[in-house]
Amino acid sequence: xxxxxxxxxxSLQEDFEYTPCPVCHANEPEICEEVNAPVSETASAAFHxxxxxxxxxxxxxxxxxxRISHRFYEQAYLPFVSAKEHxxxxxxxxxxxxxxRWNLRWKRRQIxxxxxxxGRLLDVGCGTGEFLHxxxxxxxxxxxxxxxxxxxxxxxxxYRLQVYAGGIESLPDVxxxxxxxxxxxxxxxLYSPHQALQxxxxxxxxxxxxxxxxxxxxxxxxxxxxxxxxxxxxxxxLQHFSLKTLRQLCEMHQLKLIRWQNLTLxxxxxxxxxxxxxxxxxxxxxxxxxxxxxxxxxAVAAGFIxxxxxxxxxxxxxxxxxxSVAHSE
Length: 329
Ligand SMILES: [Zn+2]
Known about the structure:
By secondary structure, this protein is of the alpha/beta class. The chain folds into 2 domains: about 5-75, no CATH class; about 90-329, Vaccinia Virus protein VP39 (Rossmann fold, 3-Layer(aba) Sandwich). Helix content is about 35%, strand content about 25%. The chain is built from 9 helices and 13 strands. It has helices at about 5-10, 90-115, 130-135, 150-160, 195-205, 220-225, 245-250, 265-275, 285-300; strands spanning about 15, 30-40, 45-50, 60, 65, 120-125, 140-145, 160-165, 180-185, 205-215, 240, 255-260, 315-325. Strands 8-7-6-9-10-13-12 form a 7-stranded mixed β-sheet, with helices on both faces. A hairpin with a 5-residue loop joins strand 3 (about 45-50) and strand 4. Helix 8 packs antiparallel against helix 9 (about 285-300). The structure holds zinc ion.
């Protein structure tokens, strides 16, 4: 007997595509995990994460065809979409708003530590514009790029930001170059990471800095939670980077890693959200909170250990890049 979920999965099948490795283009996948995820209000489906035998990238295969990918961004509850209003509400929402303000300021300071003189900044996938707004408020000339038209409208109306509606690949060439380009949790969503990076590199000034943040598939929390790790975010995250695979991708575009670190809040957020993903055994909630605290703390501690470049275990890869070949300008 077929369940409604199975029927729905079958109807979805033609909308899915097999892909070679998004980083090295090899067609040598081995299955590494099967993950169940909701595909609508009522049904869920099994997705396969594979590992490329050549470069070791973990990626979703098959994946939703790009033309239907918007369906998976329309669900009511998405943990990684920036919230639009948190001014009022419960004390938990107030705490969230406070943490978010602290996080935005921290991100700005990381960038200003590398580049104290404020210049032109492009935020790729700027969402509702909170980070861009933080930078503009502190003297940066900022612009954004965002696919979600509702988010673009919000950023423009609420913060008066300049945001181009569309993907980075289709950003029209206006002869403008940037001192800093940021991609906060964007690269894992892209169908053409190579195309995006090439465009970003072209837009970066010779001494400019590119900031890329992605979840780390080799982090302590990813290892601990396995297929329940919240940052797998199937089927919206198409590729899952480690420091090694991210370097491989960026180095193909003559980008040189100059610094990397963890995002502390992500460690606790990932652990807590991974614990809360399963709704069974609600009476265990206090224990889950405690376990999230332990796993989150371990990931924070691991984020400080950088002895082996390719075995980094922090929750997020917050990475800073420069052009390695400046003479091509
Ligand atoms: Zn590969």
